[in-house]
Every structure is written in C-alpha cells, then in structure tokens.
Amino acid sequence: MPRGNASQSKVHYQGKEEDFVIYIDDIESVQKWKGDRSIPLAQVVSGFKIFVTHKHGAQNAHDGASKSTLENEFGTSNEDDCMIKILENGDLQETETHERQGPKNDSMGSRQAH
C-alpha cells in the first residue's frame, strides 16, 4: 500500500450480491495485461487478496472475501480465476491517498510549558 501522498489504484467490480475490490500496482499495468495475457498476475496486482465492501462502494471499509462469497458470485473459489474476472469486468479507479493530514495526536493538548 502506498504511504504519504502517493496514488492508490484498484479495480472495483459490482457483483450481484457484493462489491469486490482488488488493489493493483497501477492502471497502466492492467491495460498491458489485458492486451498480453502472458504477463503474470503478480506484476499486475498488489497482493493476492480480494476484498468485499458489503455493497457500500469502493471507498468504504473492506473485508476479505470468503471462499463461499467468491463461489456464489463467480462460480469458483479459486482466487486467481476470480481476480481475472474482476480485472476483465471491473472499473479501474485511481485515488490520491492523504494519509498524513489532520491532527497527529490530539491527546497531547496545546503542549505549552506550565
């Protein structure tokens, strides 16, 4: 995952019962992969983990997808096959992360000398 003000790319797939998200290295690598399937998935995705959003969209909290959820949506619990379907049919999204904004430690008060 990127830190600081780096960009974060993901693919959002809206399924029948759940929304699925996978994180990718960048949008360009997915487009290259779509044109040349000999490129390994490891060079496209950032970690082999599929997330579900419980129908709350791509910007909210994510939980790991269970095998039964994958089986119900994609007809298989093989994560590689599910990732391929998500990459083929999902929406590519890129956002800027602003991880280091706002107060850093509110409990320290004004930090004035007493």
From TrEMBL:
<dbReference type="InterPro" id="IPR019783">
    <property type="entry name" value="SDO1/SBDS_N"/>
</dbReference>
<feature type="domain" description="Ribosome maturation protein SDO1/SBDS N-terminal">
    <location>
        <begin position="8"/>
        <end position="100"/>
    </location>
</feature>
<feature type="region of interest" description="Disordered">
    <location>
        <begin position="57"/>
        <end position="76"/>
    </location>
</feature>
<dbReference type="Pfam" id="PF01172">
    <property type="entry name" value="SBDS_N"/>
</dbReference>
<feature type="compositionally biased region" description="Polar residues">
    <location>
        <begin position="66"/>
        <end position="76"/>
    </location>
</feature>
<feature type="region of interest" description="Disordered">
    <location>
        <begin position="88"/>
        <end position="114"/>
    </location>
</feature>
<dbReference type="InterPro" id="IPR036786">
    <property type="entry name" value="Ribosome_mat_SBDS_N_sf"/>
</dbReference>
<dbReference type="InterPro" id="IPR039100">
    <property type="entry name" value="Sdo1/SBDS-like"/>
</dbReference>
<protein>
    <recommendedName>
        <fullName>Ribosome maturation protein SDO1/SBDS N-terminal domain-containing protein</fullName>
    </recommendedName>
</protein>
